[in-house]
Structures are given as structure tokens and as C-alpha cells.
Amino acid sequence: MFIMNTLKIFVISLNRPFTFTEQMTSREEKASKMFSCSERERALFEAGIKMGTIYHQFVGTPVSPHNVAELEQAIERSVKVQPFVESVKVRIVIRNTEKKDTYDYVSLTGEMIDTIVKISMKGVTVTAEMRYIEELDYPLMYVSDISS
Amino acid sequence: MFIMNTLKIFVISLNRPFTFTEQMTSREEKASKMFSCSERERALFEAGIKMGTIYHQFVGTPVSPHNVAELEQAIERSVKVQPFVESVKVRIVIRNTEKKDTYDYVSLTGEMIDTIVKISMKGVTVTAEMRYIEELDYPLMYVSDISS
Amino acid sequence: MFIMNTLKIFVISLNRPFTFTEQMTSREEKASKMFSCSERERALFEAGIKMGTIYHQFVGTPVSPHNVAELEQAIERSVKVQPFVESVKVRIVIRNTEKKDTYDYVSLTGEMIDTIVKISMKGVTVTAEMRYIEELDYPLMYVSDISS
Amino acid sequence: MFIMNTLKIFVISLNRPFTFTEQMTSREEKASKMFSCSERERALFEAGIKMGTIYHQFVGTPVSPHNVAELEQAIERSVKVQPFVESVKVRIVIRNTEKKDTYDYVSLTGEMIDTIVKISMKGVTVTAEMRYIEELDYPLMYVSDISS
Q1: What does pTM read for this prediction?
Q2: Over chain B (148 residues), what is each successive 10-residue block's mean pLDDT?
Q3: Is A75 at the interface with chain B, CB within 8 A?
Q4: Residue C103's Cα: distance from chain center in Å?
Q5: Pairing between strand A138-147 and B85-92?
Q6: Is C23 in the A-facing interface, judged by CB distances under 8 Å?
Q7: Hey, where are the domains in chain C?
Q8: Which segments of C1-148 are extended strands (E)?
Q9: How far from C45 is each of A26, A102, C51, D111, D143, CA to CA, in Å?
Q10: For residue A98, what pLDDT band results from cuts at 50, 70 and 90?
Q11: Does C50 contact D50 at a Cβ distance shorter than 8 Å?
Q12: Which pLDDT belongs to residue B98?
């Protein structure tokens, strides 16, 4: 069995060059086998990962009205290169916007982040959102929609 | 008017002998209403958040055999204070362990992280894992078990 | 007593038509007094801070040829809002650039960062650089020039 | 030629074991040549790097009274593995310490960090500190002492 598999890989290697699609299938097929859940459930897990990524990668970044647009775009684009992200919209809400002196920038906090991420995989689309909820005094990450 | 508002807040404060339990129910109840999915699906989303947190908060941290145990424990404990985490185990695999000179530490990368997180909420337990999968050449985050 | 304090704050607020310049002088003057070193020495300290910021804020960010330009710009702009930064140039060197499948992005590492930051304060300009030095197998941060 | 070089490396290998000191000199000697400043000035730069590291690596980490001691220690130890750090003391000041419900942890902010780092290299010791200065409403990093 082991030899058969090795042979198969060998034969596949001879048949190269790999097309892009073929490789994608290959890695995603292997990854997919690691999951003990449905595709729909996996899409929810992936949505959660992206929320954690946005928060914990970028909280702490120096931000002021002078760089807020670039930072929003950079966060969107860096999430977009991750697997299964259909779309991502990030808005950073700076409460104190007046540039009064050289110390008047802030470090990005979770409370300032307002984001919507759509994960799409194998026919399922999950919409997840994060924003500061005043009633909770907490920047909540939540699932706002699933469609399949 | 300003004074009136201050007085109102003052009076409200006097009226509030909140118990801990009451507040917990209150916030979690409110949060719960934001979700457009089942409890089981939410548990998967929460598991994803924790995976993204571990990766993106700590990748980059200076690590060597001298601080690896403390860092593992600190990551575990910081994930543990987040909602719905039943247990978390982190192991950091440093390939080159020889402390040869002052520059011989590394920055934590995703490839070095090996972790198992259990999320438990309202009767559902999700087990998520992250580790470097050589076949994929990728530190994969995946769902290894769901039970309810 | 509570109301009295509130009133005092209110009165103080009325007394303050702070100009921007005044505040700037004021904060920087106060900050400046905390330093037990020369202006030239402080400029070196500030240069070091910016290097640590670039490295530890952004290492871990998902990056591929699709978002590398935006990420470089966002890092530059976020460092630029910090005090005393005259200029900052960031280049991210991705070794494996072929987008073959959905997993083919990388997490930013220190080895990929190439940067030059100029700190300018009170007549002193410090130029600091960071890049991977093959001979050292280490992303070195160093001072390449001081002029005053 | 290739064989000659290989042989040379082989012979050098036989001559090992390298002592720690020997290797340290080697890499540190090479690194040292990249700097266009005095040792004293380099020590200030290194102190700044460590301040930026502490702030931007760890801001965002979930923290509550349940994990604050472990996090303080992990930050200290991870800074300690970096070059030229003689000592580092980190204290995290959580203002709201009451664990009332599952959402009652916070994300580490710069305002919560209180730290003293001593950099020691080639006869110079720089002491740098970071803490929230109320008068500035800013977590200031500053040089509190240099001795040589």
C-alpha cells in the first residue's frame, strides 16, 4: 500500500508541470481531510480565525487621522490573502481626531475596529462582524449571517 | 444641566447592588442575541477566534530554550481568560536549540506552534488544533472534534 | 463633595482656550524633562523604539504579492505618525512569490523586512536601518548615520 | 577548488569544539562594524529597541488578574533572551480588577505597562523606563540613567 502510494506520487511527478488548479486541489484536499466537521461548520471556524487575526495582529498599531485610511486598507488586504475570504471591510473609528501635538496619535484598540468579513467555501457563505457594543462595553465578534 | 446629569448617574449608582451572576447573565444574554447561528455553530466560531489570537498575538515574540516554558504557559493562560475556553495546551517547538551566542534566539513563528484548544459552551465542546503539517508546508488550524 | 468636584472641573474647562502650539510645547517640554541624557542620545533611543515597533507590530501579518505594496505603505505611515520621525522607507522582500494555491501566502518575518528610518529632533538626525544580514543569519537593526 | 574548500571546512570542523566566546565574538564583531556610532550611543539604540518590542509585541494580549503574573514574567523572559539585556522588570497595572463575568478581562494596552530595562554592553549601562504619565496622558518611554 505504501509502495503503491509512493509510486502514484512518483508517476504524478513525472506528469508535471502541475497546473495551479491541480495544486490547489491537492493542498486543500489534504487540509480538508484534517477536519472532523461539516463544510458549513468549517466555514464558521475560518470566520473566527479571521476575526482573531484582525484583532491580535493589528491592535497596538500607531494610528491617527493621517494614516487611518491606509491602515484600514492594509488590514483588509492582508486578511484577503488568507484562504476562503470572499470580502472584508474594515473601518477604524478614532474618537479623538484632533492632531494637537506630536504625541496625539493613538494605538489601535479593539474598541476602534468595525469590520465585516465574508467567508465563502464550497457553497457556504458566513458573514462575521466585530464592533464595540456599548451595552456590553466589549468589542464583540459575532456571526451575523450564514447562507448555503 | 451638566450637574443634573451627574446627579442622575449618582442616583442610579446608589440603586445598583448588582450581583456577579446577574451581570454575567445579562452580558452573555445580550451578546448571545447578536448571533445568527446555533450554539454549536457559535462554538466553532469561538474556536477559530482563539486560534487566530494565539497565532497573531504571539508570533514575533523572542524565544529560546531559556524562556520557552514561560512563553508556553503565558500563552495558555492568556487564552484561558477569554470566554468559553475550557482548556488550552501550547507547545513551542524550537528546531535549533543550541544557545551559541548572544544572537541565538529566534522570533516565534506559526510553524513552531503546536496547540490544542477546547471551547465549551452550552453543552457543546469543540476541539481545535494548530500545528505545522509538513505535507502542506503550512501551520494548519483545524477542528479535530465536536461533541454535544 | 462630588458635585463640588464636578463644578471645579467645569470651571477649569471654561478657563482653557489652549492653542495647539501651547499644548505641543507643554507636553514635549514635560516629556523632555524625564530624560537623563542629551538630545543626541535621546534621538538614538527614539530610533531604536521605531525599529522595535516595525518588527514586533507587523511580524506575523499575512502577506503575498497581492498586498505587499499596501502593507509596506501602511507600515511606513503608521511609523510616521509617531513622534520625531522625519522619514521611513519599508521594503518587504518575499522570496517565494508564486501564487500557486489558496495557502500560498506567508506570514511576515523579520528576515523579510528592509527598512530605513530617519529620526529628527532638535537639530540631530539619526538614520537607523534594519535588514537581514546573511553573514549573521540575523535581521540586524543598526545605526547607519548620525548628524547634528 | 570546491574540494579544497570542502576540505578546509572539514579540517576546521575537526578543530572544534568552538567555545561560546569565540562564536560570540565572531557574530558580534561583524554586527558591531555595521554601526556608525559610539558604544554608548549603540546602547541607547538597543534600549529603544527593547521598549518598542515590549509595547508592540504584547499590546492586545488578553489579561485579567488570573494571568497577570504569568504575562509579566513571560514578557520579562522574552526580552531577556535578546542581546545586551542585563535586567528587565515588567509590571502590568490593571485598573479594573474585579472578575465579574466571562467578558471581564481586558486587552493589554500601553497605558497598563510599567517597565524598567537595563541594557549593558561594553562597559556602558543604559536604564530605560516606560510608564503612563498622567500629566502627558501618554505611556512615555524614556532614558532614566546612563553610566559608563
Answers
A1: 0.84
A2: 41 39 70 96 98 98 96 98 96 75 88 98 96 93 96
A3: no
A4: 31
A5: unpaired
A6: yes
A7: 39-147
A8: 62-63, 85-92, 106-107, 113-121, 124-133, 138-147
A9: 50, 17, 10, 20, 8
A10: low
A11: no
A12: 57
If one compares C112 and B21, the residue with the highest pLDDT of the two is C112
Between chains, do C107 and B103 touch, taking CB under 8 Å as contact? no
CB contact under 8 A, C107 and B110: yes
Cis preceding-peptide flag for D17 (omega within 30 of 0): yes
Closest-approach residue (CA) in chain A for B36: A144
For residue A102, the tally of other CB atoms under 10 A from its CB is 16
Residue of C nearest to A78 (CA): C62
Q: Which of D57, D138, D143 lies at the smallest CB-CB distance from C45?
A: D143
What does the alpha-carbon distance between residue D66 and residue D69 come to, in Å, rounded to a whole number? 8
Closest residue in D to A137 (Cα–Cα)? D103
Contact call for residues A58 and A71 (beta carbons, < 8 A): yes
**Alpha helices per DSSP H over chain D:** 2-15, 20-33, 39-58, 68-80
Test C103 with A28 for CB contact under 8 angstroms: yes
Q: Domain spanning B39-147: which CATH class is it, in words?
A: alpha beta
Q: For the segment A15-72, what is each residue's pLDDT rounded down to a tens digit?
A: 334 444 445 568 899 999 999 999 999 999 999 999 999 999 999 999 999 999 999 9
Confidence of residue C96 (pLDDT cuts 50, 70, 90): low
C133 to chain B, any CB pair closer than 8 A? The answer is: no
Are residues A101 and C20 in contact, defined by beta-carbon separation less than 8 angstroms? yes
Indicate yes or no: CB of A48 within 8 angstroms of CB of B53.
Answer: no
Residue B9: what pLDDT? 39
Query: Which residues are within 8 A (CB) of A78 and not within 5 positions of it... i.e. 6 or more apart?
Result: A57, C61, C62, C63, C67, C70, C71
Q: For B121-135, what is each residue's pLDDT tens digit?
A: 999 999 999 999 999
Cα–Cα nearest to D129, from D143, D119, D145: D143
| ipTM of this complex prediction, to 2 decimal places | 0.83
Cβ contact D77–B71 (<8 Å): yes
φ, ψ (nearest 5 deg) of residue D82: -80, 160
Query: Is A47 at the interface with chain B, CB within 8 A?
Result: yes
Q: Which of C61, C76, C94, C106 to mutate to test the interface with A (most CBs of A within 10 A)?
A: C61
